[in-house]
Amino acid sequence: MNFELTKEQEMTRKMVRDFANNVIAPRAVDIDRHAEFPKDIFDEMGRLGLLGIPFPEEYGGSGGDTVTYALAVEEIGRVCGSTGLSYAAAVSLGASPIYYFGTEEQKQEYLIPLTKGEGLASFGLTEPNAGSDAGGTKTRAELTGDHYVINGEKCWITNAEYARSITVTAVSGKREDGKNIISAFIIPKDTEGMKITSPYEKMGVRGSNTSEIILEDVKVPKENILGDPSKGFHQFLYTLDGGRISIAALAVGIAQASLDKALAYAKERKQFGQSISKFQAIQFKLADMAMEVELARNMVLKAAWLKDQKKDFTKESAYAKLFASETAFRSSNQAIQIHGGYGYMREYEVERFLRDAKLLEIGEGTSEIQRMVIARQLGC
Ligand SMILES: Cc1cc2nc3c(=O)[nH]c(=O)nc-3n(C[C@H](O)[C@H](O)[C@H](O)COP(=O)(O)OP(=O)(O)OC[C@H]3O[C@@H](n4cnc5c(N)ncnc54)[C@H](O)[C@@H]3O)c2cc1C
């Protein structure tokens, strides 16, 4: 078994690490404080090819793999959870479903501008009354002539205000057994009847754009249906499996940042005449954090590798998402503890890590849903 990264993977990681340290990190505090979506940073990431990492060159991508992409998400998440979340959502939820399931025409029209960094895309699944139970989608799409007319509402959709296209799920008919058929539709940004606002005041990932979408008689040509119309539900489950790897990678980044800050502070802070890193109680916290970060990273890379090998990765991506997000929460919580009162102050940044990490236990399937996915894979 080979645990080495390839030369290309190492090079991309270094490039993204430098970009994260030099360009994103100095802005991270303000992005959080002012809930400011860093549009210019995304433009720059587009120019560097970061938005196209896991897509083939023929579709404008960098021809990288999922492992490389996971390393990039971790590096960005290490310095800024908000930018990390919007990056992960743009690639895994915005562009990926068009790459997985789109027709050649859809890839030319909607995927290539995304991989080239000319815009972002969003994935609108969640509704006010259909969260974990995404099969309970109420949004409807009716075929009238050669158009679908879509009506409904989506909530908490990442990047929607800045997206050039949004893929939404909607009920498009009924199966023979009476169950709803859910399909996915690509809606270009300026389509009449689609209203996007960002009214939420969030606890964390404050600089990541989170939007509400109201769809009122939104007309899209029937060619805008994504993939097999009868398999929309399976398509979004597959999309979420892939997205979980990126959320897990983001969690590893936040957990690593928490460890780095806590270790540096523990060495520097003196109480009772010595640095607090000499106290076994603090050492044990740091040891646990380091071990969990390493385990979480291994799980992310294994799930990414399985996906790259075209092997089944549903269980492993759920393991990675569940363990890494809970690791990020525990590590950021311990980082605050190690900082004592200073950790409770905004200035020391670790409280931001905790606020950002919390989202990762909720988005793209809550921790409870991950445990259900794993249990189902065990045959329960
Ligand atoms: C910042 C942010 C960004 C987001 N971005 C997107 C996006 O880009 N696109 C998108 O489509 N969605 C997005 N979401 C929505 C997110 O995926 C949902 O919030 C998540 O799936 C949970 O749904 P819910 O919030 O409705 O919670 P609910 O489903 O109402 O769950 C509430 C609680 O009940 C538990 N629960 C529910 N069902 C079960 C069960 N069967 N067994 C045990 N426990 C259960 C849950 O685990 C949770 O603890 C985003 C959310 C946030 C906060």
From TrEMBL:
<dbReference type="InterPro" id="IPR037069">
    <property type="entry name" value="AcylCoA_DH/ox_N_sf"/>
</dbReference>
<dbReference type="InterPro" id="IPR046373">
    <property type="entry name" value="Acyl-CoA_Oxase/DH_mid-dom_sf"/>
</dbReference>
<dbReference type="Pfam" id="PF02770">
    <property type="entry name" value="Acyl-CoA_dh_M"/>
</dbReference>
<dbReference type="GO" id="GO:0003995">
    <property type="term" value="F:acyl-CoA dehydrogenase activity"/>
</dbReference>
<dbReference type="InterPro" id="IPR013786">
    <property type="entry name" value="AcylCoA_DH/ox_N"/>
</dbReference>
<protein>
    <submittedName>
        <fullName>Acyl-CoA dehydrogenase</fullName>
    </submittedName>
</protein>
<feature type="domain" description="Acyl-CoA oxidase/dehydrogenase middle">
    <location>
        <begin position="122"/>
        <end position="218"/>
    </location>
</feature>
<feature type="domain" description="Acyl-CoA dehydrogenase/oxidase C-terminal">
    <location>
        <begin position="231"/>
        <end position="378"/>
    </location>
</feature>
<dbReference type="InterPro" id="IPR006091">
    <property type="entry name" value="Acyl-CoA_Oxase/DH_mid-dom"/>
</dbReference>
<dbReference type="InterPro" id="IPR006089">
    <property type="entry name" value="Acyl-CoA_DH_CS"/>
</dbReference>
<dbReference type="InterPro" id="IPR009100">
    <property type="entry name" value="AcylCoA_DH/oxidase_NM_dom_sf"/>
</dbReference>
<keyword id="KW-0560">Oxidoreductase</keyword>
<dbReference type="GO" id="GO:0050660">
    <property type="term" value="F:flavin adenine dinucleotide binding"/>
</dbReference>
<keyword id="KW-0285">Flavoprotein</keyword>
<dbReference type="InterPro" id="IPR009075">
    <property type="entry name" value="AcylCo_DH/oxidase_C"/>
</dbReference>
<dbReference type="Pfam" id="PF00441">
    <property type="entry name" value="Acyl-CoA_dh_1"/>
</dbReference>
<feature type="domain" description="Acyl-CoA dehydrogenase/oxidase N-terminal">
    <location>
        <begin position="6"/>
        <end position="118"/>
    </location>
</feature>
<comment type="similarity">
    <text>Belongs to the acyl-CoA dehydrogenase family.</text>
</comment>
<keyword id="KW-0274">FAD</keyword>
<dbReference type="Pfam" id="PF02771">
    <property type="entry name" value="Acyl-CoA_dh_N"/>
</dbReference>
<dbReference type="InterPro" id="IPR036250">
    <property type="entry name" value="AcylCo_DH-like_C"/>
</dbReference>
